[in-house]
Amino acid sequence: MRIFTFLIFLFCTTSLLGQHRIAIYDVERDPSSSSLLDDVSSYIVSFYASDDRFIVIDKVNSQLIADEQDRQKSEEFIDGYIVAQGAQEGFDYCYYPKYYKKDKLLSVKVYDVAKGTVISEESVELKKSILGTPKDMKASINKIVDKININCFEIRYEVLRCIDKKKKAAAKELLFAIGYNQRAKKDDKYDIYILSEEKVGNRIIERKDIIGTAKISEVQDGNFSTLKVNNGGEEINAALNSGKQLYGSLSK
Beta-strand (E) ranges in 113-172? Predict the structure, then answer.
């Protein structure tokens, strides 16, 4: 009875906090691919580990899915299988990474368990080192997850204001709402952008307008960093002075 009461309390607390329960599956890869790819799931887990908006279920074993895939040979069946398993385990979202050796592509599918659908699929080409192993894999995965966070959860990292000691026409340094808790590192490069809307037929579509670039010169603490503007300083300064909200996303 106590365990049941605790589970109900945990569920209610989680709901009130607005946390997402996400399950990270083991990466699906060809056995002949580099064993370094086995770290993909761990990198995704570490991306969310310090973010209190998420509860991460570490590296769900995907062997059962691999077995079903061998039998069924149907992607639609596997999608349904993952959603059903997610519902049974009480997940909100399932992340399923897969490496396509022929195209050197790493893909991550995100399943919304309640809706029973794939709500995002992002991919990136993994470059090879001179030894033939994946190069800059962690940075590539961070870019994928950054896109997923925007597409699925509308998580954006805000540029708050100029912090230049002297006021100038062009912004030189910016206060950025990202820190150790979001895995920010010195010299990470970001595109600075504003959001606009375009009407396409009967739909209103959000568009990202890049107005400059910057890189992190200092990670201040768990939640804030300093950005040094590389270009677009005048446009950035004008946008901030006019009250527009600016954001930063990892540069390609």
Answer: 117-125, 157-162
